[in-house]
Fold this protein.
Amino acid sequence: MTSSIARPPRQWIALILAGLVAAGALVRAQVPAPAAAGINRGLIWKVEKGARSGWLVGSLHLLTADAYPLPPALDTAFAAADVLIEEANPEELKTPTAAMQLVAKAMYPPGTTLQTQVSKETFEKIAKRAEKIGLPIERLQAFKPWMVALTLVGLELQKGGFDPGLGLDQHFLNRAPGAGKKVRTLETALEQIDFLESLSPQLQEGLVAASLEGTDTELAQVQRIAAAWKAGEICRILLLEAKAEPAAQKVGIAIAGLGQRRSGVEMLVAAGER
């Protein structure tokens, strides 16, 4: 690291797990709880097998303050649960050791820069967007495209009021100790980083290019998705995602294909087979 490249602020680390919509916390219990009906039910599905019941929750890793109080169905399920199972624990990346590992994975080796690893067109778009949010392009030069994409999108969403500290996974993780809930995860936070790091240079550039498209409407799109999430309108979310830019769809399909095995693990856990 050269003296001209500043260490990424601590908030960036929290943004690594800030996917816009992801299969998130799974709450599992011995005794079923009644399902809540009506509006603002959240994205929650009840799973039953034998005498065991569980709830699979669609999670938003960043939320705004007005997302709270949560839909009653989520609090009801949490109250009845014995175990909280999260996709990953965002607290892991706050330790000095994990933070150093993250930065090491996210940075190019000395002598290599972002500008030399992506096309001229992509780099110019990155520089333009960084300038728009007040981030000097020099601070991004040492980082790989996947980190640049998460940083730019995350900072823009934070400016719009979305906060990883208000995300659903973080919310229930904070409540778990006081409520006497056991906490488990499907994978580690660093395993998620390794997944991003495993993407080919072409896919990484496609990821950052897709994140730069539709910047004027992106925040409004996320706000609409968040509103649909709270209302439990899965069809509306699917329609909103279907309207995504073609480049974003293409990159998303490729990344989803690489991650199929992990999605299967989540479904097995939900069915009580693991």
Notes: The longest helix spans residues 215-231. Strands lie at 22-29, 44-49, 52-59, 83-86, 182-185. The chain has one domain: 10-270.
